[in-house]
Amino acid sequence: MAETQREDSGAEQRESSGYKLEKPIVQSIMECVEARDTEALDAIIDTLHPADVADILEQISGPERREFLDLYDGDILGEVLSELDEGLREEVINALQPDDLTAAVRELESDDVVDLLEDLEEPQQERILEALPASDRAAVEQALTYPEFSAGRLMQPEVVRAPEHWRVGDAIDYMRSDTAYLPEQFYHVVLVDPMMRPTGYVTLGKLLASPRETPLMEIVEDSFRTVPVDEAEGEVAYAFNQYHLISMPVVDNGGQLVGMITIDDAMVVLDEEAEEDILRLAGVGENRISDRVWDTTKRRFPWLAVNLVTAILASIVISQFEAVIAQVVALAVLMPIVASMGGNAGTQSLTVAVRAIATKDLTGANVWRVVRREVLVGLVNGLFFALAMGIVGLIWFGSMQLGYVLAIAMVVNMVVAGLAGILIPVALEKIGVDPALASGAFVTTVTDVVGFFAFLGLAAIMLL
Amino acid sequence: MAETQREDSGAEQRESSGYKLEKPIVQSIMECVEARDTEALDAIIDTLHPADVADILEQISGPERREFLDLYDGDILGEVLSELDEGLREEVINALQPDDLTAAVRELESDDVVDLLEDLEEPQQERILEALPASDRAAVEQALTYPEFSAGRLMQPEVVRAPEHWRVGDAIDYMRSDTAYLPEQFYHVVLVDPMMRPTGYVTLGKLLASPRETPLMEIVEDSFRTVPVDEAEGEVAYAFNQYHLISMPVVDNGGQLVGMITIDDAMVVLDEEAEEDILRLAGVGENRISDRVWDTTKRRFPWLAVNLVTAILASIVISQFEAVIAQVVALAVLMPIVASMGGNAGTQSLTVAVRAIATKDLTGANVWRVVRREVLVGLVNGLFFALAMGIVGLIWFGSMQLGYVLAIAMVVNMVVAGLAGILIPVALEKIGVDPALASGAFVTTVTDVVGFFAFLGLAAIMLL
Question: Which domains does chain A have, with CATH numbers?
Answer without folding.
Answer: 2-149 (1.25.60.10), 161-281 (3.10.580.10), 293-462 (1.10.357.20)
